[in-house]
Amino acid sequence: MSDSSTPADRQHWHAQAGDLLADDYNVPGIIACGIGLVGLACTLVAAGSGHLGWAVVAGIATAVFLLGGLAALMFEHRREERIELAYGRSGHAPGHLGPQRYSVREIAMPNPRGGLGT
């Protein structure tokens, strides 16, 4: 008996577009990254205006928030991956416990004279 599964059937779980924003547990990581970007702007302004003490403080805060935010997002991604694999899903399929197979089907085009045609 031959194995009729394709490489697509054996794919490992991967995040889909929108998963980052759809999961409420990602919000602390997104906010921390946003604060880190604001801190980066503050660091550059402080360094450019000659306030080196403030630039160092803002640089440290920037590093803490950016690394903490990225770590929180990676932690949440791994948590979501474990949940998806526990259900046996290989991708995002809301409302379905198993992986969904999508294929191209022949679509009946509307006939200009009315009705459906092929």
Strand content: under 5%
Poorly predicted ranges: none
Count of distinct strands:
2
Summarize the amount of helix as a percent range: 40-55%
Overall pLDDT level: 76
Number of helices: 3
- Shape verdict: elongated
Sheet having the most strands: 2 strands, antiparallel
Overall radius of gyration: 24 Å
**SSE class:** mainly alpha
Span from first to last CA?
Answer: 37 Å
What is the string of SSEs from the N terminus onward? HHHEE
Query: How do the strands of the widest beta sheet line up side by side?
Result: 1-2
Protein name: UsfY protein
Keywords: Membrane, Transmembrane, Transmembrane helix
Organism: Nocardia mangyaensis
Can you characterise this structure?
The chain is mainly α. It has a domain at 24-86. The chain is built from three helices and two strands; from the N terminus they run H-H-H-E-E. The chain has a two-stranded antiparallel sheet with strand order 1-2. Strand 1 (109-110) and strand 2 form a beta hairpin. Helix 2 (27-48) packs antiparallel against helix 3 (52-86). The mean pLDDT is 76. This is UsfY protein. Keywords: Membrane, Transmembrane, Transmembrane helix.
List the defining traits of the structure above.
single chain, 118 residues, mainly alpha, two-stranded antiparallel sheet, 3 helices, 52% helix, 3% strand
Q: What layout of secondary structure does this protein have?
A:
Blueprint: H1 19-22, H2 27-48, H3 52-86, E1 109-110, E2 116-117
Antiparallel strand pairs: 1-2
Helix pairs in contact: 2-3
